[in-house]
Amino acid sequence: MAQNNNQYALITGGSMGIGYELAKLFAKDGYNLILVSRTQEDLEKVAQELASQHGIKTIAIAKDLFNPKAPFDLYDEVKAKGITVNVLVNDAGQGQYGLFVESDIHRQLDIIQLNISSLTALTYLFLNDMIIRNEGKVLQLASIASELPGPWQAVYHATKAYVLSFTEALINELKDSNITMTALQPGATATDFFNKAHMQESKIMDSRMSDPAKVAKDGYEALMNGDDKIVSGIKNKAMVTASNVMPDTILAEQLNKIQQPKDNNKKE
């Protein structure tokens, strides 16, 4: 769409999975893109693909958002290019599978840095610019995990609970502005997330997973509509609805059964 030709969407985790599918939707609607992930080669490939297909401008910026400095460096680099970010998509996020006490605490702290601290910093930096203009949109990748205690992924579920609560609070703070913020809550989705989290032995791998393109479409439409949040998928909507009436102890036990190793005696 021609009216978006001068607008930029910045997407973290934009080279694969839900982030990549979101990038395709923004590109189709004429948004220029700033794609961010850790690997420059993967970013360049996607950037060139979308630029050639849709006639948009694309910028690939490799940043490791596990690094506390990276969000600030990313913001400075974008500002130095004189680019206004009209839409911020905080898609980047990872998890780690296993019992918490048997996990690598440094890896878990890295996940908190990526899923919480970097997301918070990027939101703060780009939201301040949006407030000056009184214009902008933010899409935060939460998860149905944000509504459920998650044995075998305790830290990941907790980080997504933060993202949802943080987003809901900011939606209220922004209610009198022309800035909208949307939380996208998918369930288990067929992306590389599970490989990075070393979840191959989890029972959840045997379940039917959502299509990342469908999840992205749900999130994109909700964002453009200015919706506060969207749970993607009928099964996931039912799970979230049930979570609002069931005791947390029962929810946690259900998630334990879903996420525990296929071999019950196997801990990792």
TrEMBL record:
InterPro entries: NAD(P)-bd_dom_sf, SDR_fam. GO terms for cellular component: membrane. One of its GO terms (molecular function) is oxidoreductase activity. Belongs to the short-chain dehydrogenases/reductases (SDR) family. It comes from Flavisolibacter tropicus. It holds the Pfam family adh_short. This is Oxidoreductase. The keyword Glycoprotein does not apply. Keywords: Oxidoreductase.
